[in-house]
């Protein structure tokens, strides 16, 4: 009897257990569906900008200071050209500038006291010579009137006296020029030439500075194109620099989900390479125009669908995310819609809150 009672109890208990299990599975699935409806998944690839670093000069490369894979910082020296020719041009421009500075200083200083005293002495000498020439002429003219000397001698004396008087006038003008100093036009022309020499020196030094290549922004050297000894030109890159900040995920949003996502929404990024790890992110840009899904992203059936490109900025503090890596973007739809663009150190980790 006891065995029969136990069997009857088991027959009644088994359906109840099965019913409880079915109910639990139904409740779990319902909760999962609710959670999935509150979370939007987007699929895309990690993207970043690249810079082709070329040096603004044409000469032979002297040094290449970084290798592929090196992390570089803004302002870091990356390469240098041979600078002997450019240094010689800069030294020549500096010498011309120094000479022109001396010319301007001489003109601005005016005549030296010694020059003025010399001009006065020359005037006094010409005046003495003029008086002597005048006396000689007067004597010869009297003798010529008495036919004691020839007419030619008298005329020569008259000419010499007239020339002496003109030399006095010239010496007088030279003295006035010495007192007045250089003309203002000459000083202005010298100053203009000084500015031209300064510009030439600045250009020469600029060209000398262009012989060095510096990193324009933080990043990673992806390619080292040339080597020391190669000829560099502005058209030939030396390095390819990958800009790691900002880094973003290029994903695509369907038209039905377009109204549920806005710029500034916080997100999380997952990668199959690092299971269980979430990277902080936020929606930075939603394309204003639709496009067909790229062939590299979806199947042929979905490629014909119109989508909107979404750029999701992602924080990559450990450098684990790489260019082209496929990732999943998780967007919580419970958060308020707002417009913001925060740096990585200010983006809240939605998974930890």
TrEMBL record:
Gene3D superfamilies: 2.40.30.170, 2.40.50.100, Helix hairpin bin. It is found in: Cell envelope. InterPro entries: Beta-barrel_YknX, HH_YbhG-like, UPF0194_transport. Residues 248-329 form the YknX-like beta-barrel domain. Keywords: Coiled coil, Membrane, Transmembrane, Transmembrane helix. Its main location: other. The chain crosses the membrane at residues 12-28. Pfam families: Beta-barrel_YknX, HH_YBHG. GO terms for cellular component: cell envelope. Residues 93-208 form the YbhG-like alpha-helical hairpin domain. PANTHER family: BLL5650 PROTEIN, EFFLUX SYSTEM COMPONENT YKNX-RELATED. This is Secretion protein HlyD. It comes from Mariprofundus ferrooxydans PV-1.
């Amino acid at each position: 009897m006891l065995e029969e009672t136990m069997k009857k109890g088991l027959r009644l208990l088994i359906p109840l257990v099965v019913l409880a299990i079915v109910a639990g599975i139904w409740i779990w699935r319902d909760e999962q569906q609710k959670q999935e409806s509150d979370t939007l998944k987007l699929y895309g690839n990690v993207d970043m900008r690249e810079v082709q670093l070329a040096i603004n000069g044409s000469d032979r490369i002297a040094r290449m200071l970084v290798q592929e894979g090196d992390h570089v910082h803004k302002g870091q020296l990356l390469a240098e050209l041979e600078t002997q020719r450019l240094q010689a041009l800069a030294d020549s421009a500096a010498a011309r500038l120094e000479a022109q500075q001396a010319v301007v200083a001489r003109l601005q200083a005016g005549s030296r006291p010694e020059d003025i005293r010399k001009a006065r002495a020359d005037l006094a000498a010409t005046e003495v010579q003029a008086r002597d020439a005048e006396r000689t002429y007067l004597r010869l003219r009297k003798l010529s009137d008495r036919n004691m000397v020839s007419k030619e001698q008298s005329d020569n004396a008259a000419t010499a006296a007239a020339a002496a008087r003109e030399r006095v006038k010239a010496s007088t003008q030279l003295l006035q020029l010495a007192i007045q100093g250089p003309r203002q036009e000459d000083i202005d022309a010298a100053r203009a030439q000084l500015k031209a020499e300064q510009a030439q020196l600045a250009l020469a030094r600029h060209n000398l500075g262009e012989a060095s290549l510096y990193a324009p922004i933080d990043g990673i050297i992806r390619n080292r194109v040339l080597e020391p000894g190669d000829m560099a030109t502005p058209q030939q890159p030396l390095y390819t620099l990958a800009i790691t900040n900002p880094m973003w995920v290029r994903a695509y949003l369907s038209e039905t989900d377009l109204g549920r996502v806005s710029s500034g929404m916080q997100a999380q990024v997952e990668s199959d390479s690092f299971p269980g790890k979430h990277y902080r992110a936020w929606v930075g840009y939603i394309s204003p125009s639709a496009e067909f899904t790229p062939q590299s992203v979806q199947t042929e059936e979905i490629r014909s669908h119109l989508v909107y490109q979404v750029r999701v900025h992602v924080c990559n503090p450990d450098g684990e995310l790489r260019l082209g890596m496929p990732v999943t973007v998780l967007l919580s739809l419970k958060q308020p819609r707002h417009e913001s663009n925060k740096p990585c150190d200010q983006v809240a980790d939605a998974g930890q809150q």
